[in-house]
């Protein structure tokens, strides 16, 4: 069995059809994605010190953090490696207090946060950590174990959406973390329950991208959550159905989805323009990968680590794409 591939007991197909409270069922369909602006080109930068897959990544200040995952022999690691874009140089960071793969990371309040993930033995963890003053600080535990989901920060709130819960079932509930109060609550999960999805935040909205289930395989689901109304809405489908991908948002309002896995790994990079409500194709990644990390820092998309082939394969790859030609930064509404 592939590491991370449809973990847990068989899921009832009916669960995927259950209505989620507060969901707008409209699904806007769009034509095939348009081409991206000319001049976009990937570059390879300094390889990471170690090769890993099923990592999580986040950017804080002028550094990018790559956390946890599998090493080549299948061992789960607590490894943290820190990349300095200005110097194109890596250094070792303090290990996470627990070894996890398929964890969920984001940046909130200027600091890296890591939530859940699989412990050794494929048990979803409830642990949460903040990287603060050069070390990891334990936060309030998640209300339930969660792995292979996505974490997105919007202001002082982190939303942990999708993934697998304790017991190996698809998560139906979204976990909501109040950073200032170190307190958890819950909200309705994405209308399409799934794992191995991507997530990003832009203009006070959460976006969940792609993913997969045991019953349905790879999905094109693309949905958004508005915290002000507590409602989910369906958006035009991701052009390429895929799970095991990563996603990130640019300041110009582009939700970029990269990588993924099925019988082979995906090189596709596709971008959704929030203002135009349409997808376009970007140049494919030079090294197709799944289980990778993706972050945007400034005008650059960074893709980090991951598996270059299906199953337990690892990479130390760092490839970047200058996305400034996709549009100028826009001011958030409100």
**In one word, what is the shape?**
globular
Named at the architecture level, the CATH assignment is 6 Propeller
Q: How many helix segments?
A: 0
Which segments are poorly predicted (pLDDT under 50) over 5 or more consecutive residues? 1-31
Indicate the proportion of strand residues: 35-45%
Count the E strands.
32
The structural domain count equals 1
Main β-sheet: number of strands, strand sense, barrel status? 5 strands, mixed
Overall mean pLDDT score? 90
Radius of gyration: 18 Å
Helix fraction, binned, reads: under 10%
CATH superfamily: Kelch-type beta propeller
Per CATH, what is the topology? Neuraminidase
Top-tier CATH class = Mainly Beta
Structural class: mainly beta
* First-residue to last-residue Cα separation: 47 Å
Strand order of the largest sheet: 1-25-24-21-20
List keywords for this structure.
0% helix, mainly beta, 334 residues, Neuraminidase, disordered N terminus, 5-stranded mixed β-sheet, 40% strand, 32 strands
Can you describe this structure in just a few lines?
The chain has 334 residues and is mainly beta. Strands 1-25-24-21-20 form a 5-stranded mixed beta sheet, with no helix packed on it. The chain has a 5-stranded mixed beta sheet with strand order 2-29-28-27-26, with no helix packed on it. The chain has one domain: 6 Propeller (Neuraminidase).
């Amino acid at each position: 069995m592939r590491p991370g591939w449809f973990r847990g007991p068989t899921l009832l197909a009916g669960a995927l059809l259950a209505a989620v409270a507060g969901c707008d069922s409209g699904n806007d369909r769009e034509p095939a994605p348009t081409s991206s602006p000319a001049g976009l080109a990937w570059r390879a930068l300094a390889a990471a010190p170690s090769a890993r897959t099923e990592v999580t990544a986040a950017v804080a200040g002028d550094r990018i953090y790559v956390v946890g995952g599998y090493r080549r022999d299948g061992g789960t690691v607590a490894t943290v490696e820190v990349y300095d874009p200005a110097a194109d140089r890596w250094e070792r960071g303090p290990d996470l207090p627990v070894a996890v793969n398929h964890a969920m990371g984001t940046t909130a309040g200027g600091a890296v946060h890591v939530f859940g993930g699989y412990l050794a033995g494929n048990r979803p963890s409830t642990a949460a950590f903040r990287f603060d003053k050069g070390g990891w600080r334990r936060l309030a535990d998640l209300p339930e174990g969660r792995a292979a989901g996505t974490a997105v920060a919007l202001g002082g709130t982190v939303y942990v959406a999708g993934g697998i819960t304790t017991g190996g079932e698809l998560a139906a509930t979204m976990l909501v973390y109040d950073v200032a109060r170190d307190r958890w609550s819950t909200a309705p999960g994405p209308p399409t329950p799934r794992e191995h999805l991507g997530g990003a935040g832009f203009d006070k909205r959460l976006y969940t991208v792609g993913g997969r289930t045991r019953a349905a395989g790879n999905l094109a689901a693309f949905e958004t959550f508005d915290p002000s109304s507590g409602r989910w809405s369906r958006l035009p489908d991701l052009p390429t159905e895929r799970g095991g991908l990563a996603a990130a948002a640019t300041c110009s309002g582009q939700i970029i989805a990269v990588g993924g896995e099925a019988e082979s790994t995906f090189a596709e990079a596709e971008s959704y323009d929030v203002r135009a409500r349409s997808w376009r194709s970007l140049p494919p990644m030079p090294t197709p990968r799944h289980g990778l990390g993706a972050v945007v820092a400034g005008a650059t998309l960074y893709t980090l680590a991951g598996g270059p082939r299906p199953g337990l394969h690892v990479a130390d790859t760092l490839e970047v794409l200058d996305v400034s030609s996709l549009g100028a930064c826009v001011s958030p509404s409100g």
